[in-house]
Amino acid sequence: MEVVHARCAGMDISKKDAKVCVRIAGAGRRKTTETVTTWGSMTSQILTLREHLVDQQVTCVVMEATSDYWKPFYYLLEDAGFEVMLVNARHVKTLPGRKTDVADATWLAQLGAHGLVRGSFVPPEPIRQLRDLTRTRAAITRERGREVQRLEKLLEDAGIKLSAVASDILGVSGRAMLEALIGGDRDPAALADLARRRLRSKIPQLTEALNGRFTEHHAFLARVHLDLIDRHTAAINMLTERIEVMMEP
């Protein structure tokens, strides 16, 4: 079988370490060698592994996409100029020709040497960073939404029907009413009078909606929810600014 990469490495990566097989194809009377070693997953240990692969004149590295454990290995080897192929574990295991006693790292090295695997697409670093930012923002936005739902559930428990009248309980008017409730004001009319702009036309409905049994217990929990919402909002704004900077041409 044709050898595409005379010096190829296969990596079987776990959380704590990586089994690495360096395969050096034979030529003439020299036999093919396959040497398996184990390396830790800390950055300093991966850098030492990288030096080892450079010393061995490895040109191609094949690794399986196992959880997120592959990422530090992939990024550091990519930085050094290796051709790194990230392959689907299920696909690799179903390829014919593997001997039963061959370790995963050795099998990956053999496949890479003969050009029998194709690496999955891994976006370049700027795109990876942008994706990390957008995914984090989406996750925090979802969590903020859940926190708002918890706050609404708390108000329902207290008999405060603010969301039935105000479409946004965290708008200028709604926030002012919530802060007043937390501060100890329980007068529905005084609370409704905090309405601004279009909500001023709904003061009678607000007065009715704000007539509940909002206790000190509710005030304590409402403060917790609002503080969490504010922190989520601040984080979302920071991430949005960062995303906008990274998307500039």
UniProtKB/TrEMBL annotation:
<dbReference type="GO" id="GO:0003677">
    <property type="term" value="F:DNA binding"/>
</dbReference>
<dbReference type="InterPro" id="IPR002525">
    <property type="entry name" value="Transp_IS110-like_N"/>
</dbReference>
<protein>
    <submittedName>
        <fullName>Transposase</fullName>
    </submittedName>
</protein>
<feature type="domain" description="Transposase IS110-like N-terminal">
    <location>
        <begin position="9"/>
        <end position="157"/>
    </location>
</feature>
<dbReference type="Pfam" id="PF01548">
    <property type="entry name" value="DEDD_Tnp_IS110"/>
</dbReference>
<dbReference type="InterPro" id="IPR047650">
    <property type="entry name" value="Transpos_IS110"/>
</dbReference>
<dbReference type="GO" id="GO:0006313">
    <property type="term" value="P:DNA transposition"/>
</dbReference>
<dbReference type="GO" id="GO:0004803">
    <property type="term" value="F:transposase activity"/>
</dbReference>
